[in-house]
Structure to design on (440 residues):
């Protein structure tokens, strides 16, 4: 019986060796295709094939097109339209749609047995979170100029209070990429580790029960663990979708802060 | 796994039981790949998927709105036509009634006129007939007096043998 290694599923290994790319000032970056990169590519391929086959522009949509249009409506009306505004949010629709689709598909294909969960890699979630953070900052400065710093001063408070609140607002702003990255990473790794542990109980307790006698009670534990694995597996599908939605929704909220800085807030 | 640093890192991770995600040697490559793939997908979404799906949805909404507007227009048109037809029918009925009334009045007037002329003609004939009758009677009556005087003269001559004076006879006769 193999040892219980819940973290083994997160190990990165190379599949295709590629020469490292040297970037001046940053050093060399190992661009080899790893199992992690392969599943990123699989996710991208699934999305591309899905939209190319479903976006046929039929007046009466088929099943696939209806799904694509439902997802579009969810991101367009539910996220971008509701949180940033239909007019001002429109330019960000492709970005939010890409973010949502990529994270959702990477989360969901990670649930297939023997696959690899890209979003359980902290490096990946940090990359996505930093990219989002930088986009928010860049949009903030291009839209508002130095007025961007009004973001840290809540409206309608006295100067004394503002001096006190501005550092807190600033810290909460700077912490955003960390929370974005940690939330997705934690949800993914947590679900997968718990599922692995319960699945290992199914085998471990079952094997223990084979000793006979009182140890036969192990079958009960084994069956319960199996039920838990099934329940958790269903839950993980919800989590996979929900975390993608949460990431996209928070990105919309952050963009809303800087896009609609002049009114409201 | 040729890189000795990677092997050492992986071994250290497994030895300590820590999270493999914290092995920073993998980070630059994985982050770079994620950003590159995300960038490619973003371009695909921005240039292909979003315009295609959004265009389809907008087109459908436009088509539905257009169809509804067209249906409403046709309904209005049909209602207008129905109203026009009803007005035309009413007008035609009024005209028919007026025509009928006119014809009736004309016929009545004609009949009355014809009756009046016929009556006048008949009255005229009647008057003429009466006049001729009266004339005939007068003539007859005149003849009666002549015959009476002639007869009286003849009787007197026969009885007396003297020719009677015509004027005396006439005077003796009752008028």
């Amino acid at each position: 019986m193999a040892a219980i290694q819940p973290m083994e599923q997160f190990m990165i290994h190379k599949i295709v060796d590629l020469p490292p790319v040297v970037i001046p000032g940053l050093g060399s970056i190992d661009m080899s295709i790893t199992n992690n990169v392969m599943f990123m590519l699989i996710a991208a391929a699934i999305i591309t094939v899905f939209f190319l086959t479903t976006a046929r522009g039929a007046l009466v949509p088929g099943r696939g097109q209806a799904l694509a249009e439902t997802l579009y409506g969810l991101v367009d009306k539910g996220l971008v339209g509701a949180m940033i505004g239909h007019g001002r949010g429109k330019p960000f629709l492709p970005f939010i749609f890409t973010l949502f689709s990529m994270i959702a598909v990477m989360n969901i294909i990670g649930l297939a047995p023997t696959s690899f969960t890209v979003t359980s890699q902290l490096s990946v979630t940090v990359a996505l979170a930093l990219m989002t953070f930088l986009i928010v900052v860049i949009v903030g400065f291009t839209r508002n100029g130095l007025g961007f710093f009004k973001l840290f001063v809540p409206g309608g408070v006295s100067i004394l209070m503002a001096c006190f609140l501005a550092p807190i607002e600033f810290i909460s702003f700077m912490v955003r990429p960390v929370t974005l990255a940690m939330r997705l990473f934690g949800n993914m790794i947590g679900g997968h580790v718990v599922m692995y542990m319960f699945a290992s109980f199914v085998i471990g307790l079952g094997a223990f029960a084979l000793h006979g006698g009182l140890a036969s009670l192990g079958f009960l534990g084994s069956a319960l663990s199996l039920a838990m694995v099934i329940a958790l597996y269903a839950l993980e599908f919800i989590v996979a979708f929900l975390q993608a939605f949460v990431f996209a929704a928070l990105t919309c909220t952050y963009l809303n802060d800087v896009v609609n800085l002049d009114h409201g807030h | 796994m040729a890189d000795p640093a990677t092997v050492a890192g992986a071994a250290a991770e497994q030895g300590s039981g820590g999270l493999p995600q914290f092995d920073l040697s993998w980070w630059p490559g994985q982050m770079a790949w994620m950003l590159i793939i995300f960038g490619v997908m973003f371009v695909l979404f921005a240039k292909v998927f979003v315009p295609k799906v959004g265009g389809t949805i907008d087109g459908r909404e436009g088509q539905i709105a257009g169809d509804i507007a067209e249906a409403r227009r046709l309904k209005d048109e049909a209602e207008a036509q129905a109203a026009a037809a009803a007005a035309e029918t009413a007008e035609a009925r009024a005209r028919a009634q007026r025509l009928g009334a006119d014809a009736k009045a004309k016929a009545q007037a004609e009949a009355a006129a014809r009756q009046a002329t016929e009556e006048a003609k008949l009255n005229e004939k009647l008057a003429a007939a009466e006049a001729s009758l009266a004339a005939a009677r007068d003539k007859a009556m005149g003849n009666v007096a002549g015959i009476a005087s002639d007869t009286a003269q003849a009787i007197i001559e026969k009885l007396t043998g003297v020719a009677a004076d015509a004027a005396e006879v006439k005077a003796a006769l009752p008028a």
Residues 8-259 of chain A form one domain. Chain A is about 65% helix and 5% strand.
